[in-house]
Amino acid sequence: MPRQPEGYRVFDQIKLSAWTAGIRDKYKLPLRVELWNGEQVDLSSEQPRVTIRVPGPGSLHYLLSPTLGNLGEAYVEGALEIEGSAADMIQIGNSLAESTGKPARHSRVASALRMVSPHTREKDAEAIRYHYDVSNEFYQEFLDPAMVYSCAYFETGDEDLATAQTKKIDHILTKIGVQPGHTLLDIGCGWGALVLRAAQKFGARCVGVTLSQNQFELARERVARAGLQDRIEIRLQDYRDVAGEFDRITSVGMFEHVGVQHLSEYFGRIDRLLAPGGVVMNHGITTTDVEQRASPWGGGEFIDRYVFPHGELAHLSTVIRTMQEGGLEVRDVENLRRHYARTCAIWTENFEAKAAHIRKLADPKTFRIWHVYLAGCAYAFAHDWISLYQIVCGKAGRDPAQMPWSRRYMYDGSGAVDLLSTRH
Q1: What is the pLDDT averaged over residues 283-301?
Q2: 189 is catalytic
Q3: Considering the chain, what is the average pLDDT of its residues?
Q4: 69 and 152: one domain?
Q5: Is residue 422 part of a domain?
Q6: Where is the DUF7884 domain (predicted)?
Q7: Is the pTM for the entire model greater than 0.85?
Q8: Separation between Cα atoms, residue 387 and residue 15, nearest integer Å
Q9: How many CA atoms lie within 13 A of 281 on its CB side?
Q10: Which of 151, 206, 377, 393 is labelled catalytic?
Q11: Looking at residues 235-245, what average pLDDT do you find?
């Protein structure tokens, strides 16, 4: 056997041997561990689907304390070399994390510390730029052609991603009853897919706001190419600085950046922007932990550090309470958790299929972050760690006679129902 590098103590070797024996006996994972000295350890008789290479003694502690946070950090920072599909990496990583037997989620104290992070305009803009301004071409490689970076809507489960994303946008605009001539504000408009659809198919006059320079520039280009400059305005603007009144307001995949302690203010701002009789849709990710603690096994720390700085997930009960505190009445709630699990799985497949080109568009660290992040999200949605809700609201205290008797209008596909029309 090759000479052991200095620092690989007998204690480490005994601890590693005990760890691999325990994993092999209890979990039988299709995992191979390769040490820097050439030693290989297979953790089941099955053909390995994931290989973890430990390049030196200094990286051994990541493997011996395999929380999702530790393993994710080790992979991103290059302390461990991990080969395999992202879905297999996440599944096996979660099994390793469970083997530690530690509490699945952070304590309330840790959760409280997370929720006092500052959400100033400057901090929020910085966080958005970090996540979204990698490059437009980077996102184009794994998103659908319209570049919709939020949960798709699968009516049958057989749709391709582009079809499911179009159906999602139509589902939202039909739910809120967009009609020709309505003014629509899209908070966090991304690359403009929703406002383009709202203007083209539903005849709305739209304003889309984003804090991402890349999104702003491409969304404006798309509006110009569509010849819709007279119907759509894209702004590089914080939602807190928007003025005026709008018949319809949408917020898709944005309120996760607001901060739990600021949700009442956020919904209050939406209420002030909403015209009398107007309708708003909030489409966003929630935690399924009623105490709003971080995702299990250190996954939340990884997201905080590498993916969404200052991002915070509220429980559905908190969302509904803060909507009411902000002056809004919840009128419809739909759970699309299964839909987001499939969306993220497709994004992961696309990312891996285009990996060679994506590596040219981003530095190695960024590539590794998104590689495991997308698959990790698919796993988290599939296993009910997090969820996705579409919530339709109106101003509280309005006459319920203005509401349709049934929800059938949401699924007839016409988008022709005039919900709480401002012309009443």
Answers
A1: 84
A2: no
A3: 87
A4: no
A5: no
A6: 23-99
A7: yes
A8: 38
A9: 27
A10: 377
A11: 96
In-domain check, residue 104: no
Residue 18: predicted pLDDT? 80
Same domain, 349 and 398: yes
CATH label of the domain that carries residue 71: 3.30.1050
The last residue of one of the domains, among 65, 98, 131, is 98
Q: What percent of the chain stands above pLDDT 90?
A: 64
Domain count within the chain? 2
Examine residue 31 and state whether it is found in any structural domain, yes or no.
yes
C-alpha span between 60 and 107 (Å, rounded): 27
**80 and 159: one domain?**
no
Instruction: For 156-187, write each residue's pLDDT tens digit.
Output: 999 999 999 999 999 999 999 999 999 999 99
Domain of residue 56, residue span:
10-98
Q: Tell me the CATH number at 131.
A: 3.40.50.150
Q: Residue 1 pLDDT > 90, yes or no?
A: no
> Tell me, what's the pLDDT at 305?
79
Given a cut of 70, whether residue 320 has pLDDT beyond it is: yes
Is 364 part of any domain? yes
Note whether 392 and 287 are same-domain residues.
yes
Residue position matching structure tokens 């009853």: 177
- Please give the residue that has the higher pLDDT: either 284 or 114: 284
- For 66-91, what is the mean pLDDT? 92
- Residue 380's pLDDT band, with cuts at 50, 70 and 90, is very high
Residue type, 355: A
Residue by residue, what is the 3-state secondary structure of the chain? CCCCCCCCCHHHHHHHHHHHHHHHHHCCCCEEEEECCCCEEECCCCCCCEEEEECCHHHHHHHHCCCHHHHHHHHHHCCCEEECCHHHHHHHHHHHHHCCCCCCCCCHHHHHHHCCCCCCHHHHHHHHHHHHCCCHHHHHCCCCCCCCCCCCCCCCCCCCHHHHHHHHHHHHHHHCCCCCCCEEEEECCCCCHHHHHHHHCCCCEEEEEECCHHHHHHHHHHHHHCCCCCCEEEEECCHHHCCCCEEEEEEECCHHHCCHHHHHHHHHHHHHHEEEEEEEEEEEEEECCCCCCCCHHHHHHHHHHHHCCCCCCCEHHHHHHHHHHCCEEEEEEEECHHHHHHHHHHHHHHHHHCHHHHHHHCCHHHHHHHHHHHHHHHHHHHCCCEEEEEEEEEECCCCHHHCCCCCHHHCCCCCCCCCCCCCC
